[in-house]
Specification:
22% helix; 24% strand; alpha+beta; three-stranded antiparallel β-sheet; two-stranded antiparallel sheet
Length: 112
């Protein structure tokens, strides 16, 4: 019998199987920390799951409204929202005259 990828992961003992779709790496201007964004698709779903290597936090700064994800099955849409969440706070802090700092980026402990 020939097994498909989806069939190979149907045993009840297997939980939350994901297919890796793509990875993107970039820096925010003037912050020397590389950020990675990975996109996955659950085996039995069309939606896309995003995982980021870092979150952003700037004391005393509230983020501007980030984009909402209109189509969770579109890689471009999901990637845009994941990056926009970082950019909104980054731009808000820059708008308040703060100088970018590596301490703004907090490693995501769940990223592997």
């Amino acid at each position: 019998m020939s097994w498909s990828r989806e069939e190979a992961l149907t045993d009840p003992a297997v939980r939350e199987p994901l297919i890796f779709l793509s990875e993107f790496r970039f820096f925010l201007q003037d912050i020397p920390v590389e950020i990675a964004v990975r996109l996955y698709r659950p085996i039995h779903s069309n939606r896309i799951v995003v995982r980021r290597s870092h979150e952003i936090s700037v004391s005393g700064v509230s983020p501007q409204r980030a984009a909402l994800c209109a189509d969770e099955a579109s890689e471009g849409e999901v990637l845009h929202v994941a990056v926009d969440e970082l950019l909104c706070l980054y731009k808000a802090a820059r708008g308040q005259g703060l100088k970018p700092d590596a301490s703004w980026l907090k490693p995501n402990a769940d990223f592997s």
